[in-house]
Design goal:
Length: 277
């Protein structure tokens, strides 16, 4: 059992959670993820590692389905049944010169250890963080020590420039020509960042979070087409060159699942209301 050591709401339906674990900090590297099971009847939830310290690991969780709602509703001192990890391949960190990291929404959290590692490797790191509005922008102050330049964007213009992250990214590409781009966020955001990278012949690493069940490549649920070949995000990724990803097929599958998850969540909330009533 792994206890919830602390929990803090950092944005609407989004929580910063530290969980106890004796070993993950010894092995975790930027880009890797965990699979958490809340109880013996719970589904497995894949979550990217935001940070890891002695005897504890940090995840940023947005409540979007039944299991993530249950995790976000837990109190300090309560425990989850299982934490498996670190899983997946770590980010390929090296000194490249000028690099750009682009995060959208809750995807900002898994971008943080990547940005920190890139800065530690001696790179000039340009950061672009975007969200729907200022209330959904997370971890901005934590990023600042590891960025040489920071751009913010919000859909409604309440913080930074108005619009999507691709607006400041066009400026960064024109002014600094980064050697590599890292992008983590909603599928549609990563698709258009990858398109810009492709148009400018810049390598672009994206962290994919398709449907995932076991996290070991056995179920095949997290399959994604990359460069015309079928890959499993859990064992071949989660990072891939976004210029090679079949985004249309991946987005179609993801939204089909989200609709099924939405219907299941509505049923769960309804049943909970009847029970409380």
């Amino acid at each position: 059992m792994h206890a919830v050591l602390s929990k803090k709401r950092i944005a609407p339906d989004t929580y910063d959670i530290w969980l106890s674990h004796p070993d993950i900090y010894r092995y975790a590297k930027p880009g890797q993820f965990l699979i958490i099971r809340i109880d013996e009847f719970g589904e497995r939830i894949p979550l990217t590692i935001a940070s890891a310290e002695k005897d504890r690991v940090r995840v940023i969780v947005k409540a979007v389905g039944k299991s993530t709602y249950k995790l976000c509703a837990m109190h300090e001192g309560e425990s989850v049944a299982d934490i498996v990890g670190p899983l997946g391949n770590p980010s390929e960190i090296e000194k490249l010169g000028t690099v750009c990291v682009v995060g959208g929404g809750v995807g900002i959290a898994p971008l943080f250890p990547v940005a920190r590692a890139l800065k530690s490797a001696g790179n000039e790191v340009i950061g672009i963080l975007g969200a729907a509005n200022k209330d959904h922008l997370i971890m901005v102050e934590e990023f600042k020590p590891f960025l040489d330049r920071l751009y913010l964007s919000t859909d409604d213009g309440s913080a930074g420039v108005k619009g999507t992250v691709t607006n400041p990214l066009k400026e960064v590409i024109a002014d600094y020509t980064p050697a590599t781009i890292w992008a983590i966020g909603p599928m549609v955001m990563m698709k258009f960042v990858s398109l810009l990278a492709s148009q400018n012949d810049i390598p672009c690493w994206v962290s994919l979070n398709p449907i995932m069940v076991d996290g070991t490549g056995m179920c095949g649920a997290c399959r994604v087409e990359v460069g015309g070949e079928m890959k499993f995000a859990c064992v071949h990724g989660p990072e891939f060159d976004g210029r090679l990803v079949n985004w249309d097929e991946l987005i179609k599958r993801q939204y089909q699942y989200r609709e099924e998850e939405r219907l299941a969540l509505e049923k769960y909330v309804h049943e909970l209301g009847e029970k409380d009533g």
